[in-house]
Amino acid sequence: MPASSNSPMHICLSAACSIDGYMDDTSNQRLILSSDEDLLDIQRERSLCDAILVGAGTLRADNPRLSIREPPLVDARLRNGLPAQPIKITLTATGNLDPNGQFFQQGTQEKIVLCPTGVVTSLKSRLDGWATVIGIDAPITARRIAHVLQERGVRHLFVEGGVLVLSLFLSEGIFDRFRLAIAPFFVGEKGISRFQLQHALVANRQERLSIGSVRLLGDTTVIDYLHSRGRQTTRHDFETVSDTPVSSIVETNV
Ligand SMILES: NC(=O)c1ccc[n+]([C@@H]2O[C@H](COP(=O)([O-])OP(=O)(O)OC[C@H]3O[C@@H](n4cnc5c(N)ncnc54)[C@H](OP(=O)(O)O)[C@@H]3O)[C@@H](O)[C@H]2O)c1
C-alpha cells in the first residue's frame, strides 16, 4: 500500500459534461466530452493518485480500463516509489459485475470491489479471485467508503464517476477538489445523466465552492473547484509525483 493510514486522504472528483450539463446521451456508444488535451490531463491526474474509483454503472456502460497509458507518467510513478498503476476500485449494491470486463482483466494492479456485507460471499464466488471484495455495513456512504480506503492506506483517491457515485460524494461533501470539464457543445433532448444531489451541498447554498483554477485544454474548459472539508487544499498541493509536461495547456489561476 502506498501510504500510511494516518495520512489525511485527498479526494478529487472528476466529471465531464456538455454545456447543458449532460454527462452522457442515450446512444449505445460512449459520449466523448473531453478534448484530447483533457484526456491527457486525466491521465496525469490518474498518475498522481493511489486509487481510482468508479461505480458499477460506469463499468457496465463504458467498460473502462482505468489505467495510465502514457509511459512517461508510469515511469514517473516508479521513480517516486509508487506502483506503476493505481489501484482500481468499484462500488456495487447488487453485485452485478462482469468478471470479464476490462476493469478486472486489464493490468496487474489490485482491484477492489466495495459492496454491502450481505453480498460479499456471492460476489467473491462470482469474481473468482479477480478482485478483493470488501463488505461495508449499509448504508454505504461516501464517508464510510473514505474511511475504509483510508484504513487500507489510500492517500489520494480519484473518483471518475459515474453519476450516482459522484452524486454520493458531492452530496455528502466528501471531497477536496471537484474537477469539472465542460465540452463546447449541447446534447439537448438526447441527454441523460445529470447529478442527483441530496443533502449537504444542495441544502446549503451558502456553501459556495472556491475556484482553484480555470484551464482551457484544447476546446474543453476545466474548472477545479476546491472544497475545504475543514482544511485548505489547492490543486497543486499534491502534485509532487510527476513534473511531466502536458502540452497545450492554457492555465488561468483565479
Ligand atoms: N461524463 C462523465 O464524467 C462520466 C463519468 C463516468 C460515467 N459517466 C456516465 O455515467 C453513466 C453511469 O452512471 P451511473 O450513475 O449508472 O454509474 P455509477 O455512478 O458509476 O454507478 C452506479 C452504481 O454504483 C453502485 N452504487 C452507487 N451508490 C452506491 C451505494 N451507496 N452503495 C452501493 N452501491 C452503490 C450501484 O451499483 P449496482 O447497480 O451494481 O448495485 C449503482 O447502480 C454512464 O452513462 C456513463 O457513461 C459519465
Automatic annotation (TrEMBL):
<comment type="pathway">
    <text>Cofactor biosynthesis; riboflavin biosynthesis.</text>
</comment>
<protein>
    <submittedName>
        <fullName>Pyrimidine reductase</fullName>
    </submittedName>
</protein>
<dbReference type="InterPro" id="IPR002734">
    <property type="entry name" value="RibDG_C"/>
</dbReference>
<dbReference type="GO" id="GO:0009231">
    <property type="term" value="P:riboflavin biosynthetic process"/>
</dbReference>
<dbReference type="InterPro" id="IPR024072">
    <property type="entry name" value="DHFR-like_dom_sf"/>
</dbReference>
<dbReference type="InterPro" id="IPR050765">
    <property type="entry name" value="Riboflavin_Biosynth_HTPR"/>
</dbReference>
<feature type="domain" description="Bacterial bifunctional deaminase-reductase C-terminal">
    <location>
        <begin position="10"/>
        <end position="199"/>
    </location>
</feature>
<keyword id="KW-0560">Oxidoreductase</keyword>
<dbReference type="Pfam" id="PF01872">
    <property type="entry name" value="RibD_C"/>
</dbReference>
<keyword id="KW-0521">NADP</keyword>
<dbReference type="GO" id="GO:0008703">
    <property type="term" value="F:5-amino-6-(5-phosphoribosylamino)uracil reductase activity"/>
</dbReference>
